Every structure is written in C-alpha cells, then in structure tokens.
C-alpha cells in the first residue's frame, strides 16, 4: 500500500506540473481594447473598400484619359472619403493626381487635373507603401485589392487581400497586412492573416443562413479581414472564428465577443 501511495503521489505531482505548464503557456484571453482595435481596423478597411469601388465607378463615368491612372489612393477626411487616381512620377518623389473623387451625400464628385496635381503627402507615401508591399508579396494568379490605412506614429498599414470576382461569392484568406514606415519604403512588420482562400458559395434561396464559421491556424485572435468579411458580405450574418483556446463571435456591426472554446 505504501508503495502504491508513493507512486500515485509522484504521478499526481507530474500531472499537476504538466497542467500548470500548459496553463502558463496558453495565451491570455484578449482584452476588450484589443478586440475593439481589430474591429476598428476592419471597419475602416470595409469603408476604404467601398470608397474605392464607388469612386472608381464615378471616375469611369467621365471617361478618363488612357495612361493617366495607375493607382488609386483613398483617405478618410472630415467630410468623407477622398480617392485620388494617378501614378508615381519617374523619380518616385511625387504622386501625380489626374482625377480625384470626393464623397458627397448622393454620389462621388469627380475633379480632373490637367496638368496632374503633384502630391508629396499622404498619396505619395501610400503609393510608395503599396509598391513596397507588392514587391514583397509577389505575383498572384487572381485579382487582389489593396488598401492603405494610417497606423501609429504616422506609419502605414498596407492590406493585400483577394478581390471578389463572382457576385455572391466572398473570398477570405491568403491575405497579408504590412506595417510600413512613414515614407512608404520600409516594411517593419509582415502579418500573414490567413493561409489559404475560402470562398463562400452563393446563398440558396431555400436555406436561411444564421451564422458563418471558420477556424484560424496562424493566430490566436480574429483578423481585420474577418471583420471586413462580416461587414461586406450579403446577406449580413455573424461569423464565428475559432482561434487557439477561444471562440470569437463577430456580430454584424463588427463587434467581437470572446468565450472559452468548448472542449
């Protein structure tokens, strides 16, 4: 009996140590502030995406001259979104704005600049940041969208994410967020948000979808593009994201809640 008891106590001690070690290694539950920051970035990314395609439609309607536009750069001003269409000059020290679409209550109003307006501020930094990120990202076999958002200390976030190519089918995955220096020339962080692309199928009319679901393998929290998916997908439904030890629910307004993953 004494030998059995000693052996049991030893095994229990080892088990306790393993459990304690696992708990110590498990990531702590994300704070409300961290989740709110993901929501804010995802919501701004959705706004950027909407501004880009609405402004593009407005510029195309005025029949822009060929060769004057190579890139679009959007920024959120106090009165709404402003989207500049143009290209870098040969020295890459100016962004030449050929057209500008300004958000108005009913539609985007388009201005034309001849000669092109020379920008050395946000548009220039954003255009250079896109070029920097694209060189690192490399070629793709499908269309990609790009977005540039302001980050801390005047640095920039550059997002590269797969474009929607079929109505009703919303791609998620194979997307990257770059943190780039204020001048747009140096990558300070590269975050692979998702690995492979998941494409939803067009919703069937005889089935009502209540919620979406996917799991993460690269991170312990939802990504900015998860929020983007929820805010842009039609019809809008929440998305459940399983990541690490937790299960997150992204509501249709972008708010993220977290609970322990069921075992």
Report on the architecture of this protein.
- The protein has 263 residues and is of the alpha+beta class.
- The protein is built from 4 helices and 14 strands.
- Helix 2 (32-60) crosses helix 4.
- The longest helix has 29 residues, at 32-60.
- The radius of gyration is 23 Å and the shape is globular.
Strand count, sense and barrel status of the largest sheet are:
4 strands, antiparallel
In what order do the strands lie side by side in the largest sheet?
1-2-3-4
Compressed to H and E, one letter per element, the order equals HHEEEEHEEEEEEEHEEE
How would you sum up the global shape? globular
Helix content: 25-40%
Distance between the termini: 36 Å
Q: Enumerate how many helices there are, as a single number.
A: 4
The radius of gyration computed from the alpha-carbon positions, rounded to a whole number of angstroms, is 23 Å
How would you classify the helix and strand content by structural class?
A: alpha+beta
Low-confidence stretches: 1-24
Q: Number of DSSP strands?
A: 14
The mean pLDDT is: 89
- Sheet-strand content, in percent, reads 25-35%
What's the quick description here?
By secondary structure, this protein is an alpha+beta fold. It contains 4 helices and 14 strands. 30% of the residues lie in helices and 32% in strands.
